[in-house]
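ugh ok so i messed up the first submission bc i forgot one of the chains. this is the corrected input, ALL of the components this time, i swear. 582 residues overall. if the numbers dont match what u have on ur side tell me asap before i send this to the collaborators (the ones from the other lab, u know who)
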Amino acid sequence: MLNERSLHSDECGFVGLSGSLQALAGALDGAFLDIALSFDAEVQEFLPLLPVDDLRKIDYFTSFPHVVTFPVSVENESADLHEFARANGAGCDGPLRLNRVGAVSAVLAPAACYAVYIALKGASLETPRRITVKGTCFRSEKSFEPLVRQPSFRMREIVHIGGRPDVEVFLEEASRRVTLLASALGLTAKLEKATDPFFDPERSPKYRHAKLFPTKTELVVEGVAIASFNDHRNFFGEAFGINSPAGPANTACFAFGIERWVHAIVATHGMNPAEWPLSRFAGLDQTSCAR
Amino acid sequence: MLNERSLHSDECGFVGLSGSLQALAGALDGAFLDIALSFDAEVQEFLPLLPVDDLRKIDYFTSFPHVVTFPVSVENESADLHEFARANGAGCDGPLRLNRVGAVSAVLAPAACYAVYIALKGASLETPRRITVKGTCFRSEKSFEPLVRQPSFRMREIVHIGGRPDVEVFLEEASRRVTLLASALGLTAKLEKATDPFFDPERSPKYRHAKLFPTKTELVVEGVAIASFNDHRNFFGEAFGINSPAGPANTACFAFGIERWVHAIVATHGMNPAEWPLSRFAGLDQTSCAR
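and heres the new structure output, hopefully the right one now
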């Protein structure tokens, strides 16, 4: 289905887009950003490392140890480096042979929006805030399928931080707008309730004690979630001390999986850009779409 | 110097930009992309994972073991996951406690351009090609300074793949254009010869045997390299079997460190966007600069 000149991939997780697929990804994120700006979201951007200490505050390592990916380096002492270099030279093959690794105090971001709550730690908000971020994310996956299930992928999110009533209005409008966009792009999509797969629900303190646990709805095209709508209630507000006038802030977000939208368009309409259903895609030309 | 409402950072490597600094980063990359397009470069984009097997072909683990960062996960067997979750729950502090980690067959990209050569493996090019990529990169660093020395940072590169004469023309024009841009932005910058710090030059086979080893020139502002110009000669062409009509391709690239340009502008002109020296920055307004 996919033109190999536009998709570059390797089962270890290497993924690249060029030509019309790169332009499609850019045009789709342009549409997502249009929605974000119509929500009056402020644009922020974060590098994809999150402090271990902050993820502990939300019990991340207890709830999702099977998802998390850490950046590690060889311990910076000469003997270890020599051993590592000897064991992994040009003549070797197979996975890397690691010896002692350095201390790990940051984690590769599993989603784009965590950085937003971390940056707001301790804030008191008089009025609700909306923020959009596009981030590179990392998750440990058991299988690899380019554009669909990648160990590294890109996500555009729009976050709302405020009180209970405005969070509900935000999520209702988000779901309406994203469903409309999918429909305008000719995608056959449906909303489905989802639960994130907890590693060990019975042992997760947050899972056991929270009566108002975060909920997630997904927009699904042929079995693949291309967007999600997440009501965190006061989970991040309490963990990070973010307050609204009514107490710990409520937060919510909606997220677009950028490569998954590319996949949905191509799976639905084929590889010919002239068949893609937005006027901005017609007569696609790389230079004009490069931004 | 930096307004804390626009820069979010933590010594473990967490870095985010909002407000005027985010808009500045976007406008700067817009200027870099303008240069790329004036070089007729094709736009490509890659997720930041590179296959271990491909980095072995360029002796990366022998030459730069001190720089490389790997994404690792806990081995996906229940006993290991339970042990990891127990050792890193909400009550713990300090760096993560890791037990057995899974096999590592990809590395976090240390530069944006490697992916371009990997995607061109085995290609025979009739005419030179130019490609631009903006990538998130990762390097193990001994210290942390936001915008200047980060374990994760963004880089825009413009790559040329061709023969010896056209590579030389490309690098000459690149250095002229980037120096002009720095000057137009009011930066006091100078070109300096650089050598990448090899881990153990005497033991590196490529270092010992190559008479025509890759060379690097940097554009430096107050001791910080904000751009580099790299002549790889036939290093990547030979390693990845990329051929030009005259034999293994010659390659070259020039690279912009996006956060370092943000730092140079702010260090030179201060935090007030009205003082930033391009008309596109004057009267900066987030919505209009969001793209």
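quick check: The radius of gyration of chain B is 21 Å. that seems consistent at least. The longest strand of chain B covers residues 152-162.
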